[in-house]
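User: Teach me something about this protein's shape.
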Amino acid sequence: MKQTNLVALLALLAFASCNPSAKEGDEAKTESKTEKTATTTNTTTAKGVYFVNLKEGDQVKSPVIIQMGVNGMEVEAAGNMNEGKGHHHIIIDGTFEPKGTMVPKDETHLHFGQGQIVDTLPLSPGKHTLTLQFANGMHESYGEEWSKTIAINVTK
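Assistant: First, the predicted structure itself:
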């Protein structure tokens, strides 16, 4: 990882650890309270999206800090249709959206249309799946190839 990306990531982690947790019902305000920053790239990962700080089967506490990464495309704010660019969405307890399908916006389909790559999500205790979905500037999914689903267990 380039030194500038590492410094940016460490700064985000420091900010997130000092950030007060979200209140119940604030999920709809996700876009306004999350951090915007440059694309996170993991040079050992193939093209696609990935969770920077979470992996399959992790035990976590709520609120859950989520760091989103992408290889092979650039993160940019929604609204523009630019080849090879887009933004992240998280689907809670659901699966990827087919290619070309608009990602819904509701309590389980979170949009990061300002180009955010870090968020803190309040999740109820128990098992959950998180699907990271990359989409173009009009929120149209890039499909299964640009999604990643993991299962996590949220403890009290």
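Now, about its shape. The mean pLDDT is 81. The beta strands are 35-36, 48-51, 59-61, 64-71, 74-75, 85-92, 109-111, 116-121, 126-135, 147-155. If you'd like, I can walk through any region in more detail.
User: That's plenty for now, thanks!
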